């Protein structure tokens, strides 16, 4: 049995981090017990036990043909403090709504972000939220060689669009299980001012399969609104992120990414949690925007090809 907490449907524009974007487990959350059966995923001959899929020093490699050979820091990390990068972000760097898709990030950008985590220039609105707390802790414990190896590995992987955006007035009632939403019942509720992003196959996602797709439910009209915002001269996403918003040699792509992740980053730029050397252009852009704008931009960007 998965213990869950229900996400409220009455989210409002506020200066407090919205729960839908910063999901967290209730204090008494416990993952489903191990039934002793090996786990499998489609199109893979690999097999892992439940304890292996929950081992922070192991990146389950369901599809080794999808990526280069993993360096040690990605595959197994370094005990006791450097978790395997591929555990949270998956072997192919695809991550999930609770963290980040890091496939294809420019090497220099990746390294700079790790340095910013180390120095405190990059933080997060909820520092006790486990995905970000682990990331900050790992950045401080990893050495320069490990960071460089991870950066070069993930940069070599072509990013893929894995999110399907659905505009809707109502959404399957979401619950939280492992810092991300699941929608396993037929009950629906108004979407309100939220993005509800969930794995299309929760079991595969829990088993850390990097080929899992996601569904992002967004309010009606948000994609068109976001498209208009992205093209405004004072925002002009393409000026930095490239004509198709797929990034450059030094700037990350924002097309086709998790809209939950994009919203969190816009929110954190707006509220001073990202202050690294490359942050000023983003801070200048977001200071005149609000959470409704962030949501619309995130919804639109998620529809683009990578």
From TrEMBL:
Signal peptide, first to last residue = none
The residue ranges of the Cytochrome c domain are 72-158, 221-305
UniProt biased composition (Basic and acidic residues): 31-42
This entry's Gene Ontology molecular function terms read: electron transfer activity; heme binding; metal ion binding
* Keyword Metal-binding set for record: yes
Entry keyword set: Electron transport, Heme, Iron, Metal-binding, Transport
Under the heading InterPro entries, the entry gives: Cyt_c-like_dom (IPR009056), Cyt_c-like_dom_sf (IPR036909), Cytochrome_c_Oxidase_Subunit (IPR050597)
Keyword tRNA processing on this protein? no
Which protein are we looking at? Answer: C-type cytochrome
The species is: Bradyrhizobium cajani
């Amino acid at each position: 049995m998965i213990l869950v907490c229900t996400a409220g449907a009455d989210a409002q524009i506020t200066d407090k981090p919205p729960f839908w974007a910063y999901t967290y487990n209730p204090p008494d959350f416990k993952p489903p017990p191990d039934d002793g059966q090996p786990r499998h995923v489609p199109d893979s001959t690999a097999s892992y036990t439940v304890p292996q899929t929950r081992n922070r020093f192991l990146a389950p490699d369901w599809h080794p043909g999808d990526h280069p050979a993993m360096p040690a820091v990605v595959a197994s990390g370094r005990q006791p403090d450097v978790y395997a990068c591929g555990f949270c972000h998956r072997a192919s760097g695809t991550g999930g709504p609770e963290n980040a898709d890091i496939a294809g990030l420019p090497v220099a950008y990746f390294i700079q972000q790790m340095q910013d985590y180390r120095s405190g220039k990059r933080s997060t609105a909820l520092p006790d939220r486990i995905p970000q707390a682990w990331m900050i802790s790992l950045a401080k414990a990893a050495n320069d060689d490990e960071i460089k190896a991870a950066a070069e590995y993930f940069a070599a992987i072509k990013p893929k669009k894995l999110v399907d955006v659905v505009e809707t007035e109502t959404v399957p009632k979401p619950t939280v299980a492992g810092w991300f939403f699941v929608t396993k019942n037929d009950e629906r509720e108004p979407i309100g001012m939220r993005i509800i992003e969930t794995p299309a196959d929760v079991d595969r996602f829990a088993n850390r399969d990097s080929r899992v797709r996601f569904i992002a439910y967004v309010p009606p009209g948000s994609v068109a609104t976001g498209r208009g915002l992205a093209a405004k001269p004072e925002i002009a996403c393409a000026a930095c992120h490239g004509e198709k918003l797929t990034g450059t040699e030094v700037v990350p792509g924002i097309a086709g990414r998790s809209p939950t992740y994009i919203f969190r980053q816009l929110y954190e730029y707006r509220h001073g949690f990202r202050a690294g050397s490359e942050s000023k252009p983003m801070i200048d852009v977001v200071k005149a925007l609000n959470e409704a704008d962030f949501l619309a931009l995130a919804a639109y960007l998620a529809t683009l090809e990578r």
